[in-house]
């Protein structure tokens, strides 16, 4: 999620880089965020996927 670093953390979003998620373009680390909906690795939780986010060409990034 690309958003304002002062707004979205109040809803539980954290820097996506903590999960190995990165954008395909330059953006401040604190602005690219992720929200884990399941606790990874605990009680059968699903691991958080990692990698580079690829936006469709229509987004122009």
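Q: What amino acid sequence fits the structure above?
A:
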């Amino acid at each position: 999620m690309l958003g304002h670093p002062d707004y979205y953390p109040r809803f539980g979003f954290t820097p996506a880089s903590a999960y190995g998620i990165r954008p395909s373009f330059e953006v401040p680390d604190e602005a690219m965020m992720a929200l884990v909906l399941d606790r990874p690795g605990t009680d059968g939780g699903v691991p958080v996927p990692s990698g580079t986010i690829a936006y469709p060409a229509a987004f122009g990034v």
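Q: And what stands out in the fold?
A: The mean pLDDT is 88.
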